[in-house]
Amino acid sequence: xxxxxxxxxxxxxxxxxxxxxxxxxxxxxxxxxxxxxxxxxxxxxxxxxxxxxxxxxxxxxxxxxxxxxxxxxxxxxxxxxxxxxxxxxxxxxxxxxxxxxxxxxxxxxxxxxxxxxxxxxxxxxxxxxxxxxxxxxxxxxxxxxxxxxxxxxxxxxxxxxxxxxxxxxxxxxxxxxxxxxxxxxxxxxxxxxxxxxxxxxxxxxxxxxxxxxxxxxxxxxxxxxxxxxxxxxxxxxxxxxxxxxxxxxxxxxxxxxxxxxxxxxxxxxxxxxxxxxxxxxxxxxxxxxxxxxxxxxxxxxxxxxxxxxxxxxxxxxxxxxxxxxxxxxxxxxxxxxxxxxxxxxxxxxxxxxxxxxxxxxxxxxxxxxxxxxxxxxxxxxxxxxxxxxxxxxxxxxxxxxxxxxxxxxxxxxxxxxxxxxxxxxxxxxxxxxxxxxxxxxxxxxxxxxxxxxxxxxxxxxxxxxxxxxxxxxxxxxxxxxxxxxxxxxxxxxxxxxxxxxxxxxxxxxxxxxxxxxxxxxxxxxxxxxxxxxxxxxxxxxxxxxxxxxxxxxxxxxxxxxxxxxxxxxxxxxxxxxxxxxxxxxxxxxxxxxxxxxxxxxxxxxxxxxxxxxxxxxxxxxx
Length: 622
Ligand code: ADP
Prior knowledge:
The protein is an alpha+beta fold.
C-alpha cells in the first residue's frame, strides 16, 4: 500500500459527524462551511471551495483554506457554461472531474485559482494547472453547485482512497445544498403566497388609492424590490380616473409618464413581464437606464395590468444587485398579482361609471319631475279661467257647436293636467291618510260612473264581491283613483260586444280586485313598460283611443305606497286581467301593528269601527 492510499484515521469519524449535521442542521451555509473545512483539515487538501448555482452563474459562497486565498475568490462569479465546458473535457473519477494541466487552453481555466509552486517532473505530482472538481447535484439530477479542490495531500494526484473519501464529502455537500434549495423553495412559496394574499386583501380597502398603495408595499416586500409603482391609465375604456401609488417612493414622477406607458405597452405586446437589466436592455426605450441609475437598481420589471385585451395600467418593479433575476415562482406570482390588480382596477372603474350614471339618471329624473310639476301648474291657471268662461258661454247658449267642442277639449286638457299634477304629487309623496276602505264599495262606485259609457259602447259590466266588505287600510281617495283607472281602462279598451268582469276577494291576508276584460289585450313587449309614465301600447287600435299613459304609473305607485301591487296578465287580441292586491288589516304600510284578528272582515262586521284600538278609521262611503 502506498502512502497516498493509506486511510486517513479520523476521516470516517468526521464524515459521520458531518452526515449527522447535514440531516439535522437548519443552517445549510454552516454545514457547507463544515464540509469544506473537513476536506481541508481531514483529507488534507490545501483548499476546498464551494460555489452555488444562481440562475446561470456559479457564485463562490464557501471557501476553506488560507485566508488570503479565501478573500481572493469568495463571491467570485463564473458562468455555468464555462464550468460545464471544463467538465466535458475532464477525466471522470466517479462523481469527480479531473482536468489535467495542458488539456484546456490556459484562458479557459475559468473558476481556477492557480497556486504558486514550481511543477515537478514526477508524473504522480500535482501540477499548479491541474483542476479537480465535483459537480453537486440534487436527488433529481439538477445541478446545484460545484466544489473545487486544490493542493491535494502531499501535493500528489489523489489516490483511490482519497478520492473515495472526497466523494463522500461531496455527496454530503450535494445533500446540504439540496436541503437548502428545498427550504428556500418552501420559504419562497410561503413568501409569495403571503404577498398575493396581502394584495388580494388590499382590494377590500376603501378606495383604489389606498388599495394600490397597500398592494405596492406588499409587492415591494414580497418580491425583494427596492421600488414598486402601480399606475392606472386615465383614458382606459372603462373610466377616466387616474390612480397611482408607489413604495417606498409614493408617486412616480410626471416626467416618467410616457416611459411607463411605453413599458406597459411593450410588456402587454410581449404577453409577459418585461425584464430590463443594466447590461441587457433590448427595449431601446429612452429613459429606462436613467431610471435604473436614479434608483440604483440592477433590474426593472414592467408588468402590464390588463383584463383580457384591455390594458388598464402597469406595475413597475425595481430590484437591486442582490436580487437581480426573478425566479420562475416569482414570475408566476407577479403574473397572478397583475391579474388581481387588473380585476381591482376594472371593478373600481365599473363602480365609478355606475355611480356616475346613477347620479345622472337621478338628476334627469329630478329634472323631469320638476318640469312636469312646473308646466302643469302653469297650464292649470289659464285653463281654469278658460273653463269658467266656457261655462258662462254655455249659460248663454248651448246650441253653438264650437262652444261644445271648446268645452269638450278644455275638459280633456283639464284631465290631462290633473293627471300630470297627480303624477308629480305622487312621486314625492311620503305621508299618507290611513283609513279603513271597503274595496267592494270602491268598485261599485266606479262601475256606477262607467255604466253609461259601457251601455253606449255595448259592453256588459259585472261585479262579483263577497257578502262581507273587503277592507283595507289606506287613503280612500287614492285607492278610488286606482280602481277607477283599472276599471275605466277595461271599458275604454274593450270594443262593443265585449264584457268586463270585476271580482273582489280576500284571502291569506291579501285583498284583491281582479278586472278581466275581453278587449284589445296588450303585447308582451308593451306589458314590460306598461307601468312607466307616458307609456302607451304600440298597438294602433289602442293608440287611436285618447289617453295620457299616466294612469297606470300613478296607480302602481299608489298600490306600492299601500304595501301592495298591480299585476297584469294579458294576450294581445284576447283581453286582459289587471289585479290590484293590497294587504288587509294590520299589514298595511306605515300602520302600527295590531294583534291577529283585531281587524278585518270579522272585526268590521261586529261594528268595531268605534273600537279605540282602531283610532279614527272610518269606512269610506259606507
Ligand atoms: P292611458 O289609458 O291614459 O293611456 P294608462 O297608464 O292607464 O294610460 O294605460 C297605459 C296603456 O296601457 C294604455 O295606453 C293602453 O295602451 C294600455 N292599457 C291599459 N289598460 C288596458 C286594457 N284593459 N286593455 C288594453 N290595453 C290597456
